[in-house]
Amino acid sequence: MTSQLNLKNNSSVLMNLSEEEQFHQVCALLEKDVIEALKLANSTLRSKKYFQDLLERGLEVADASEIEVWLKYLVPRLGMRYVINVLEGKLIEQPQRVNKALYWLPKFLNRTNETEMNLFKNLENKILELTVNHVTV
User: Which long-range contacts (CB under 8 A, 24 or more apart) does 1-8 make?
Assistant: First the structure.
């Protein structure tokens, strides 16, 4: 219940701020409570840019199990195709980070969406290809 009260209080306070200021407040809250910060982001932020920034931050700071929480809140806001495109763009420079996110992605895939499934399989194949070419993932 405390978390719900904090979320409601934070949400109402943030509504009076610009979206950029809201984003900075969400980022500050990430240091204390990732789940509450991501819920707050979902209730206050609108711009896809901020959600992409949050995804990139999650890829940087979350460990292999924590990234699931980040994906849970960010995939619905960004869309699976967008998330896969972001991950694909980071594949060469940050294969370990992409691989830890890739592990959890099937949980959020719409298995009836052929495009999503193909994009996911393509990303999976690219990671395998990197592994075969001896890049550590």
Answer: 3/33, 3/35, 3/36, 6/36, 7/36, 7/39, 7/40, 7/43
